[in-house]
Predict the structure.
Amino acid sequence: ILKRLYTEEEAEIAARMPIRFTDLAGIARRTKKSEDALRPILHRMADKGLVMDFEHRGKFTYILSPTVIGFFEFAFMRVRSDLPQKEIAKHMVAYAHDEPDFARAVFAGRTQVGRTLVHEDAVDPADRTRILDHERATHIVKEAKTWAVSLCYCRHVMEHEGKACSKPMEVCTTLNSAADYVIRHGLGRRISREEALDIFARTRAEGLVHIGDNVKRRPAYICHCCGCCCAMLSAINRFKMFDAVVTSPFEASFDASKCNGCGQCAKKCPVSAIRIDGNGTAKKAALDPAICLGCGVCRPACARGALSMAARTERVIVPETAWQRAVVMAIERGKFQNLLFDDFDRLDHAALRAVTRIVVGLPPVKKALL
């Protein structure tokens, strides 16, 4: 995959780029290339989604795109002729969908990049006051400053493999500064707030799961996911990694006196969290709360009013910012030292990484004694 996305020159620069946001001068010092030589290369890499560039106080800062959500998605957010998309799609399906190793590495901790946003109309009106602003897709969209839409990476990849479903393709929504980046580099098209809200209404009606950027402030994206193509939901369905997506603060709940065990809700669930127990007239829907995303996709399927979305007893903790999430994820995955000391050409950074890894890995009691 990397050989098809990167040139050798781009790979050399990427290998020496800092992990955190850095201006052009900082990258020039790290790579030992002039700013004039770097500028067009970084722009080309941003066009391919390998680097993200954001304007801050009148100048651009750069950061390597993560794998998920990052250059995997950017490579397929539009049809393009500068990349062998069909070939890359084949490798991505084999790497990210068919084998568990990648999913285990990405979704290893409790904190994830994606968080389920409940379909608000699936929640009873009396309970909607429980939904906080950062948990409402409509609020997130309305409060954004910029909006863009692109092709769904997951369904586009599966289309190249001849496995795509019939769900809408042009729905991948980016917001705020991420939308500015996507628009500037031709990875998506600018849309209005009203068109963005229309997309959400359409995907709710299609039974797609809304999975958003797992932060409270300035979220960058919201995906519209199906259980058959989505890479994040694939980790749940295929590899039983039930923490791959953070849940909403709700879960499905059933009124046994009204349920006739028809199974329509189970058919709609994108992660098979609902099962039908019993036989004949004793059949009833039952939930595995460890799997349920709290998305609300199942709610419209119940014609008898037996299904509702109930508040979870344990509150879902959401990171304030993308940086806080990155720090927590790095600690959980044993990579915090790489975030702090990211120059792999320096011996002092290597030593500091080793010390930090040992300290972070100590039991809490021993940390307190330091």
